[in-house]
């Protein structure tokens, strides 16, 4: 129950049950200082457009526990980034009053102007049709990717040569990598306005094609979008980015590295992380597959589960379809290996395909954010500066555009996650001009230079760690 004394809503869409009780509750302006005291899932207030909402205990919010990343803070822009127009109508029962005038006016005029300007830019992009997808583009992307899958399978079915089988493993790895980008687009609702279509397409490209649980991924990924490169304020808090939670293997800041100070294994990983980065990328996908199975079928007693998994399982409407999708994935992939290859070759094929894919996926993920600014949760800047300064674009060319699947425009994607990737080049021009005009530095590098930046950053953190915590 929130401090306002209202009970948590019981229905998934959170519509009528709170009703007028919520609105009538405070009957006075609320200060930002008050809002900032309500920061936990069971006691969560947030601001949207200078109105205060109490979402305490709303574990069945359809987007899951990501809502609590903004408990005690202004959620105006992150709300706009994630929700369809229909969600605005569901807000009213949670409203407990207006933010007081002094809290609104305390923000410097320049900051208010800046926020107004980037909200206007969003409006202009809507009017320009940037949020509308080209179905022909996605038909082409999906069918060309299925052609890669067919080529990979045929290499296994039609040849007895080990080298051709390994070519098949490489093609399947490429196929899965591209499936990752397609699932990403569908699950961000870039392609269909009807969200169920997006979720089903996500299950096809995620669960069936590549054995990835999209419910698990969506929960983690949306949280990452809400708070990129943020260190959680405490181990139990919901305000950190799960994607930089890579300890004990990789530390992206001295703060993270400090956790390894007392363990010999931890010190080893932090001190050598620049060298270990690529080997770690190779096994990344195998870890994601295990986490996906654990999430979908409640295995391993939740050992691999991330924060908010329980909420995500409850709220993802297509959980049974997800489970069926996983079964279909292991059936087709298992049948391919079992009917065409010896046991030893099948194991080699499985590991080679998974590792190559993991490497190609993680390389692109790493370019997106690793080595960019990190923040403490209580020191995050406004939405625009947070998204821009924690993110790196990759200079586009024909290969990069295909290989990175839209994430070469990571900055632009983070600001507007539901804009389809084929519109991002145009959006990027507007974003770059806006950043220049408003003195916000956004960063772009080639694939090679970006990867070197990631490695130098890891090396820099190791050096700081050794200096700060010399071995005894
Ligand atoms: C009073 C506050 C809020 C209300 C009433 C609300 C309501 C909703 C509703 C109705 C949906 C389902 C939309 C649909 O698929 O048709 C939804 C989804 C979602 N919400 Fe919220 N929400 C609130 C705050 C937030 C906040 C602060 C965040 C992020 C920090 C958030 C993140 C999401 C996400 C990620 C989804 C899932 C979108 C998807 O299907 O991919 N929500 N919310």
From TrEMBL:
<keyword id="KW-1133">Transmembrane helix</keyword>
<dbReference type="InterPro" id="IPR036400">
    <property type="entry name" value="Cyt_B5-like_heme/steroid_sf"/>
</dbReference>
<keyword id="KW-0560">Oxidoreductase</keyword>
<dbReference type="Pfam" id="PF00487">
    <property type="entry name" value="FA_desaturase"/>
</dbReference>
<dbReference type="InterPro" id="IPR005804">
    <property type="entry name" value="FA_desaturase_dom"/>
</dbReference>
<comment type="similarity">
    <text>Belongs to the fatty acid desaturase type 1 family.</text>
</comment>
<dbReference type="GO" id="GO:0016717">
    <property type="term" value="F:oxidoreductase activity, acting on paired donors, with oxidation of a pair of donors resulting in the reduction of molecular oxygen to two molecules of water"/>
</dbReference>
<dbReference type="Pfam" id="PF00173">
    <property type="entry name" value="Cyt-b5"/>
</dbReference>
<keyword id="KW-0472">Membrane</keyword>
<dbReference type="InterPro" id="IPR012171">
    <property type="entry name" value="Fatty_acid_desaturase"/>
</dbReference>
<dbReference type="InterPro" id="IPR001199">
    <property type="entry name" value="Cyt_B5-like_heme/steroid-bd"/>
</dbReference>
<feature type="compositionally biased region" description="Low complexity">
    <location>
        <begin position="12"/>
        <end position="28"/>
    </location>
</feature>
<dbReference type="GO" id="GO:0006629">
    <property type="term" value="P:lipid metabolic process"/>
</dbReference>
<feature type="transmembrane region" description="Helical">
    <location>
        <begin position="347"/>
        <end position="367"/>
    </location>
</feature>
<feature type="region of interest" description="Disordered">
    <location>
        <begin position="1"/>
        <end position="31"/>
    </location>
</feature>
<keyword id="KW-0812">Transmembrane</keyword>
<feature type="domain" description="Cytochrome b5 heme-binding">
    <location>
        <begin position="27"/>
        <end position="100"/>
    </location>
</feature>
<dbReference type="GO" id="GO:0016020">
    <property type="term" value="C:membrane"/>
</dbReference>
<keyword id="KW-0443">Lipid metabolism</keyword>
<protein>
    <submittedName>
        <fullName>Delta-6 fatty acid desaturase</fullName>
    </submittedName>
</protein>
